[in-house]
Design brief:
heterodimer, A: mainly alpha, 2 domains, 81% helix, 0% strand, globular, B: 219 residues, alpha/beta, Rossmann fold, 3-stranded parallel sheet, two-stranded antiparallel sheet, 7 strands
Amino acid sequence: MPYRYIRNSTALIALLLAWELLPAFGIVNRTFLSSPSEVSAAMAKLIMTGELGMHTGISLQRAFTGFGLAVITMIPLGFLMGWYRGFEEISDNLVQTMRQVSSLSLFPVFLLFFGIGEISKIAVIYWGTQWPILLNTISGVKSVDPLLIKSARSMGSGDFSIFKKVVLPSSLPSIIVGLRLGATHAILVLVAAEMIGATSGLGYSIKNWEFNFMIPEMYAAIVTLALLGLTTNYSLVYLEKKMIKWKEETNVLQVEK
Amino acid sequence: MGPSGCGKSTFLEIVAGLIKPTSGSVFIDGRQIKGPDRNRGIVFQGYALFPWRSVIGNIAYGLEEKGVPVKEREKICRKYISLVGLSGFENHYPFQLSGGMKQRVAIARALAYDPDILLMDEPFASLDAQTREILQGEILNIWDKTRKTVIFVTHNIEEAVFLADRIAIMSARPGIIRKIVDVPLGRPRFEEHRTAQELMSLRQEVGKLVREEASKNAI
């Protein structure tokens, strides 16, 4: 087991080594690229002062609120749109158009409406996150095998039962794919929004520390973001494995979409 | 039996109450079929097992819908699991089973809520020859133990003659019953009846009728 972990991390370790050595030998200007040791030192300092925790906390709060709102609104809506043909027919064009409206292009609009406070940032994260969740829920519902529905009907299931016992479990894998895409999107939009219009959070910190030429600190924030993304993805993969034991084992990490 | 596209499966689904007939009506023991009901159980060619439910979970489905309490449900499930010879596989998921095992689960599932009539839509068509023969034998056994009316759709003449008391041959366009022939063979039946001499002429007769209908269809 430990050997496997080391082997699978070969490239990562190589990159860290190169990153450490390139500035040390002066191949890359160390003012622009702090080495991992400098970054970890800066990170430790930022953790001690509580600054990193504070910014991470704020960022997470924004991302989770936007993401959470998208989950609780878009999964039910996805079920409605996937299940009732008429509902999808009248709304499909709207959805296809709206999802092409880039989240960040709407950020100024949200700023106008909601001001520089939390709501505008949550709104822009919500906007970006809702599409993958909605579209994957719809496709999950639509790809339910009609034979299974027939089979359930033949055993006396009514509509509610079919929804609960057939449609819901059958579309779960697709919904979880939507959640993973949504979570990735949430972090992406979060950083950009915080860079443009915020006075706290990791996105703001990256910009701010770069501005003040605190380069190791800037990298520390970038690394924190990467770690957040990694944690989120692994948690969702774990959730997927826990909830979907009935699928043939596939290498979930390799089918990253 | 009948050529592809003559409406065998459609008929079966009408009997199951899954589709409404364009015209006319179907009665079982004097009662008109108005929708699906647990007095009929159906087994599909494509198994139609719920992939997220284990073997026992699949078999329990109809009982759940019927409102049978958990304890009794489990008892009944185990009984049918052993009837189809799957003891030890209770907690396996469908993806871990072979085609023949999946079809055994589907049969147990359709029997578990104790319907009066078992509808089988080419249940063995996608299985390999050996598995098919084994399952044909099992169906005879199960019939012996449960004595349920079975309506069985098949393409396979030997299978029809071996399993049935009566064979209805359908014609295509319009999909009507061309002829009903009786199989002059009592029960219980055994492997040797598969090739029994006295059934030779019947096999030939049925074969001829089916081929005639199929060739009409081709024109």
